[in-house]
Structure formats: structure tokens, C-alpha cells
Amino acid sequence: MDFRHQILPSSGLSSLNVDALLVVVAGDTLDAGFDARLSAPIEEAMAQGDFQLKAGRTLYLHRPQGIRVPRVAVTAAASATPKAFKTALAKGFALLKDTGARTVGVVLVGGEVDASHAEALVAASLDATYVYRHTKPSAPANAAITTVVLVTDKLHAKVAQLGLLRGQAIGNGVTLAREWANRPANHCTPSLLADEARALAKRHDLKVEVFDRKAIEKLGMGSFLAVSQGSEEPPRFIVLRYQGAAKSKAPIVLVGKGVTFDTGGISIKPAAEMDEMKFDMGGAASVLGTLRAVAELKPKVNVVGIIPACENMPDGRSLKPGDVVTSLSGQTIEVLNTDAEGRLLLCDALTYAERFKPAAVVDIATLTGACVIALGNHRSGLFTADEALASELIDAGQAGLDPCWRMPLDEEYDEGLKSNFADMANVGPRAGGAITAAMFLRRFTGNYRWAHLDIAGTAWKSGASKGGTGRPVSLLTHYVLSQAG
Ligand code: BES
Ligand code: MN
Ligand code: ZN
Is residue 42 located within the same domain as residue 157? Predict the structure, then answer.
């Protein structure tokens, strides 16, 4: 069943025909103009100490008097910003999740709804209702909630509608990225990723090219191939193209790490939580998701998505510590640790990107555990020497509620990559590991503006709600939209 979002320009709650109302109250006082039939029970609950206007607090009202809607969930938001709105919505949807509500009306009290609020609502409701079923068909076919209606005043209905459309396109991209990150490695091989890219291209009028092992050899991607050589699963090099502007316009190139499973190779990882390394293609998934969102929104800009995809496995034919490989750029690399494989794929893809004469190249990768230590799970690591590109990406993350944080790229960090046996080693010292990884990539960036996003901490959630997040599709889509004419 299709999930639906609508805008309802309305002056009051009386006309609302929904199963549940989700009321987000922003700030620390209840707007005097708010419908008295609801403000009365809310105020009564506050007087009795059952509810407070403090971010995170919720209140459930069943059949409040005088209102047609049978269920009302009230959630407090710190402020009326889209970010606070989204956080409060997540609480509200959680409250309604196990009720019989199928259609939910959403009202913001104490603030005005604009495009970003509508976008945030779509993100929050998709987040609350996504169900992974690919290898768990017994899971409910769809979440109970099927329709979400955002109530706005008549003045804001138009902008809200625009935000809704943007939110839906981004939401579809986020869900796609999330879904593929969740699929186990035996259901998400390089070949299956390539099939998905082809299907996406067909449905959304994109151009697609898929290179197999032979073609990758012919291109000369010795570094990428070296990682894949220990796996029975053949590698794929995927190139997707969206053309929304004149052919002559330089494209934005997105490069996504597509390691469909990372055992570490001969430098094998410990068993605990190794299963989570099925999401090591999160960068690739975010490239697919972003191209899907962009293809739906049709901005006047050109975008190329590049995905080097393979497995990193230990085997008789595997890459060994100390092996020296020759990258597409001609530079040689001493592989001191086969678990630092992401950069070995990305370096060849970054060299390949040069042929598009890009306006900018952004690579996206679950690259280092060190980045998770540095930034945790809230912000992706952003590395770039280009000031303008840095602020464009930071702004895009802010606007898309998918934030990143800039990290340094000082020359001094490059020293750790020295090797006696090749142009460079693939790892440096443990300290500052996310930065040396970025320094490694930098050696392969050609004559173009470049940024690197380390999403090791943000593309995946561990713990009870473990699974993909679909990040940073929102950041990337906002960035692409910001570059449209
Ligand atoms: N895919 C991992 C990075 C990773 C770790 C992502 C944890 C998400 C969660 C990457 O290929 C890797 O193994 N990196 C090594 C690099 C080290 C050997 C220099 C790491 O971070 O330990
Ligand atoms: Mn690894
Ligand atoms: Zn990896």
C-alpha cells in the first residue's frame, strides 16, 4: 500500500477527518489562540503535573470532548524550528504507533509551517513507518499509519506543498538507501547493486553503465581490483548519469563506497558485530538514493554517480599485508592493512571521475571507525580544502537535517602515509585515522574541487533499532538542488 502525505489548508480543526491528531506544541507557553477544546485538557494535564511544555514530553488524550478526532497525541518541542519539529514528531508517531490510527493530522502550535517543516514531517513519518521485509516477509506489510495530513493556514499551504514534494522525493531516496544498507550481503552483492542501478535508470530515465571484472581490468583499476580478488563475487563498477542541464554544463560527481561486505580481508575483523559490515556499501546506497531523489525533482543540473562495488574477503587469492598494487593513477600503494580497503576502491574511482571534468566531486564512504570515535552518530565527517564547497555542504546538511562537521586536512597528516616500498602506504598511525584516510584519498583527487564525507557513524544505527538510516541522502540532495541554475 502507498503511504500518502497531504497538505490541508485549514482554519480550524473541526473540518479534520482523521483517526488521530498529532499536536506539536513549540516553546514553553501554549498559544492563546489554539483551539480551546484541546488547550483545556492540555492545560488541565499540565496543572496536574501530567504534562510539561519541555522538549521530549508527550501526552495522549483519548476522545477529548467536543472534537471529532478520537485520538490526540501532544508532544512538546523546544522551539518551532524544523529540527525541533522533527524531533517532536518522532515522539508523537511513536505514541500513535500501536494505536488503531491509520490517518494522522499534524498541527504545529506556536509556530508557522513552512516548506522545511513539511519536508521534516515527511522524513519523520517515513522514519516511523518504514518496515524492512526483504528477508523477513513475515513482518507486517505496512505500518498501521498510511496517511499523514499536515494542517497549515491558507497562507502557508503553497510553500508547504513544495516542501512536501521535496520531502517525498528525498524520502524515497532515503528509503532506498536504507533498504539496501539493511539487505544482507548475500542479498546485496555487487551484481545486485548493479541490477538496482539499472532498474533505477530505467524507471527514472537515467543513463547507466556497468563495468565487469574484465572491463575494470582494461580500465586499469589495479587498486580496486586488488580488494575484490579475494572474493568469489565478481566486482562491478557502476556509473549513473542524470542530465538536467545542457551537456556542456560540468556535472557534480558523487562517488560512493560500495563494499557489500567487509570482513577486513586477511587483516580480518573480530567476530563481534562483523555482521554490521554488510552496510559498508552505505556510501553507494546514498548515491543511488540521491540519484533517485534528483531524478524525481528534476533540477537543472548534471549529476554523475560512481559506485565501485566489491566484497572484501580472506581467501587463497586475497590481497596480503605488504602487497603493492598499482592504482589507475599510476601511483603505487603498499597495502599494510587489508581492512583499509575502502580507500583502495575510492582512489581508482576518484581518478576515473576526472574524465567528467566535474564542477565538484563528493565521495561518500563508511570509511573509518576513527570517524565514529571522533563524531559519534550525529554528524558525518566532512573533509575538504575548498572553503566554498565546505560551506555549501554544511548548509545542505543543515537544511536537510542531515548535518556534517568539518575536519582538518593539514599537510602534516600526510606524513603517516610514507612507505619504503611504494608511493604510499594505505594506512597511517591509529591516531587521527579518519584524517589520514582522507589524506590518502586527496592524493588521487585530480584537477577538481573535492570533498569527502565519512559516514561510518551516521549511515547505520546499532543497538535495538539497528539498521540503515538512509543518510546522507538528504544532505546530498539538498546540495545538488543548491547547485541548480
Ligand atoms: N568499513 C570500515 C570502517 C567502519 C568501521 C565503518 C566501523 C563502520 C563502522 C573500514 O573499511 C575499515 O575497516 N577501516 C579500518 C581502517 C584501519 C585499518 C586503518 C578501521 O576503521 O578500523
Ligand atoms: Mn575495512
Ligand atoms: Zn570497509
Answer: yes
Burial 226-238 (b: 16+ CB within 10 A, else e): bbbbbbebbbbbb
Whose alpha carbon is nearest atom 22 of ligand 1?
369
Pocket test for ligand 1, best of 339, 461, 469, 471 (most atoms within 8 A of CB): 339
CA pair distance 109, 334, nearest whole angstrom = 60
Given the residues 269, 406, 443, 461, select the one marked as catalytic. Answer: 269
Residues 456 and 382 in one domain: yes
- Run of H or E residues at 8: strand 4-9
Co-location of 190 and 338 in the same domain: yes
Q: Which ligand is nearest to the CA of 276?
A: 1
Along the 485 residues of the chain, how does pLDDT read in single tens digits?
468 999 998 877 877 899 999 999 999 999 888 999 999 999 999 999 999 999 999 999 999 999 999 999 999 999 999 999 999 999 999 999 889 999 999 999 999 999 999 999 999 999 999 999 999 999 987 678 999 999 999 999 999 999 999 999 999 999 999 999 999 999 999 999 999 999 999 999 999 999 999 999 999 999 999 999 999 999 999 999 999 999 999 999 999 999 999 999 999 999 999 999 999 999 999 999 999 999 999 999 999 999 999 999 999 999 999 999 999 999 999 999 999 999 999 999 999 999 999 999 999 999 999 999 999 999 999 999 999 999 999 999 999 999 999 999 999 999 999 999 999 999 999 999 999 999 999 999 989 999 999 999 999 998 888 999 999 999 999 999 999 97
Shared domain for 402 and 358, answered yes or no, is yes
376 and 240 within one domain: yes
Rounded to whole angstroms, the Cα distance separating 425 from 416 reads 8
Q: What is the pTM of this model?
A: 0.97
Q: Give, rounded to a whole angstrom, the gap between the first and last alpha carbons of the chain.
A: 36
Range of the domain at 141: 2-174
Whether 332 and 384 map to the same domain: the answer is: yes
Q: Point out which residues pair with 152 in neighbouring strands.
A: 9
Environment class of 301 (CB within 10 Å of its CB; exposed 0-12, middle 13-18, buried 19+): buried
Task: Mark which of 146, 174, 202 sits at the end of a domain.
Answer: 174
Q: Is 418 an annotated catalytic residue?
A: no
Domain's final residue, options 174, 197, 212: 174
Residue 202 falls in the annotated catalytic set = no
Q: Looking at ligand 1, which residue's alpha carbon is closest to its atom 8?
A: 456
Which residue in 91, 278, 343, 379 is the catalytic one? 343
